[in-house]
Amino acid sequence: MWKITNYILRDLSKSWIIIGYVLLLFVASWGVFSIENEPDKAILNLLQILLLLLPLFTLVFTTIYYYNSLEFILLLLAQPIDRKKIYRGFAMGLMGTLSLCLLLGMGIPIMIHFPSNQGMMLLLCGLLLTTTFVAIALFLSSRLSDKAKGMGAVLLLWSFFAFLFDGMLLLFMYQFGAYPIESAVLAISFLNPIVIARTSVLMTTEAAAMLGLSGAVFKDFFGSTLGFTVSLLAFIGYTTLFYSLSWKNFKKKDM
Fold first, then answer.
1. Which is nearest to 138 in space by CA: 89, 200, 210?
2. Is 191 helix (H, G, I), strand (E, B) or coil?
3. What's the gap between Cα 27 and its chain centre?
4. How far is Cα 70 from Cα 75, in angstroms, rounded to an integer?
5. Please, are residues 7 and 90 in contact by the beta-carbon 8 Å criterion?
């Protein structure tokens, strides 16, 4: 398994797309810190970049790489190697590479300009989002044999998580704004990994004070040890769930 993971890491490190992703994150992060004098605002700007770019790139790249690697996977399956070890090594190679990209591209500027709790929370949420969306992409890719359908599915899912979910949540809050719905909104927010990451980072900055009563409720939860633990478990749960489902798809697939 580790040999397969190591091969995937070495193979992806030579990819110009991966190199470009690291450079894009690095230039964007360094540029934000150079332009913005207030570190808190810089973290918020980086958060917006991260929440849009990372899920999209992770979903699309993982999906394309999976489909392009099917011949390599078939070659491995022809060897006396356990299928589970092959798939686990493949998934860990992707998760490890994309996580390393985030640490190099965004982690270095943060550690140089603003090594704080906010910066560490941003990086942690970015790493958790990476593993979660790799698992989701593998689930969709292993489920759909057609590459075009797989790409369409991940783009549709990204659109839902990045845009449609917020619109639906705002509509819910508008329709039931006269009722004490803070707890319900808090529970619904855990249905979207992007919202969990965004709220977790926001609650560590001064922006939480601008959200009024709802912000106070969210800060009391996400700013506590319990909230951090529940958020971490939610990310782990999403990753474990979708990885397990993708493994079941892969195990049943007639290669």
1. 89
2. coil
3. 20
4. 9
5. no
* Local structure of 204: helix, strand or coil: coil
Distance separating alpha carbons of residues 192 and 70, to the nearest angstrom? 30
Q: Which string of b and e fits 178-195 if b means at least 16 CB within 10 Å? A: eeebbeebbebbbebbbb
The one-letter code for the residue type at 202 is: L
What pLDDT does residue 187 have?
Answer: 83
**What pTM, to 2 d.p., does this model score?**
0.91
Burial of 209 (0-12, 13-18, 19+ CB in 10 A): exposed
pLDDT at residue number 124: 94
User: What are the structure tokens assigned to 233, written together?
Assistant: 């478990």
Question: What element of type H or E holds 29?
Answer: helix 16-35
Q: Give the tokens for residue 1.
A: 């398994």
Mean pLDDT for back-to-back runs of 10 residues, the chain (255 residues) = 79 89 94 85 89 94 92 82 87 94 93 87 94 96 90 94 87 78 81 89 67 54 73 93 92 72
Cβ atoms < 10 Å from Cβ of 123:
20
Which residues, 6+ apart, have CB-to-CB distance to 67 below 8 Å?
Answer: 141, 147, 150
* Helix (H) and strand (E) counts in the chain: 13, 0
DSSP string covering 97-130: HHHHHHIIIIIHHHHHH--SHHHHHHHHHHHHHH
Give me the amino acid identity at 138. Answer: L
The values of phi and psi at residue 31, to 5°, are -65, -40
Could you give the CA distance from residue 40 to residue 110 in angstroms, rounded to a whole number? 12
Q: Report DSSP letters for 30-50, one per residue.
A: HHHHHH-SSHHHHHHHHHHHH
